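Severity: low
Component: inverse-folding endpoint
Summary: output formatting inconsistent between runs
Steps to reproduce: submit the following structure tokens with default settings.
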């Protein structure tokens, strides 16, 4: 498959709600509202700061609410591959550094000191820590957060199913950093043969800019809660 020939057409543009329980007065009520709303294709349960057992309980309850709503929205878990396996969730999101560290046969020569060449601030030990069960990730559809073209190409080369590029627009989540912009997004979309999703400061008002850049979909946090 040729690279650098323009963004590819991956069919339906997908919308993903990224959870943040700190933004919710009633987290499970928001889950129910998004699941019933019909606009989200997926929910990324991002609460990976929780210990594994608490995260599992949160994921289990979220799945129950989705089922109660009769919704077709799919749940994507974050970091904890063992929880995904236990609950029968087939898709897992990993930060770039954790994906590299969990690569096994894929990333054996790209861990440790070599990891820093892709982006030193993503090779921080705190960002690599966490339970992601490398032996289980090969059975899951894996999405990887990337913050540069080099990271995106590396993730694709090591077997990621898709990348999530950000942050695109200014956002309170990264108040000290300006958004990388749609030119950055377009370049990644054009260079990769796997799907590229956009994240960061995206809402229903600027969604057309993301689509025009060639993204396969958009991840939104506050956009679904407004």
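Observed output (run 2 of 3):
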């Amino acid at each position: 498959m040729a690279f650098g020939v323009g963004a590819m057409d991956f069919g339906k543009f997908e919308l993903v709600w990224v959870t943040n329980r700190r933004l919710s007065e009633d987290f499970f009520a928001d889950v129910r509202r998004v699941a019933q709303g019909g606009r989200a294709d997926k929910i990324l349960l991002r609460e990976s700061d929780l210990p594994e057992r608490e995260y599992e309980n949160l994921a289990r309850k979220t799945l129950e609410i989705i089922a109660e709503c009769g919704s077709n929205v799919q749940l994507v878990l974050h970091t904890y591959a063992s929880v995904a396996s236990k609950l029968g969730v087939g898709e897992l999101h990993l930060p770039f550094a954790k994906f590299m560290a969990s690569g096994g046969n894929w990333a054996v020569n790209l861990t440790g000191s070599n990891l820093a060449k892709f982006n030193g601030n993503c090779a921080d030990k705190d960002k690599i820590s966490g339970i992601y069960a490398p032996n289980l990730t090969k059975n899951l559809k894996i999405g990887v957060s990337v913050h540069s073209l080099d990271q995106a190409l590396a993730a694709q080369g090591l077997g990621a199913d898709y990348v999530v590029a950000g942050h695109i627009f200014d956002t309170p989540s990264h108040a000290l950093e300006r958004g990388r912009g749609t030119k950055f997004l377009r370049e990644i979309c054009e260079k990769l043969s796997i799907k590229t999703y956009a994240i960061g400061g995206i809402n229903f008002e600027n969604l057309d800019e993301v689509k025009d850049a060639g993204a396969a979909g958009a991840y939104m946090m506050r956009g679904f809660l407004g």
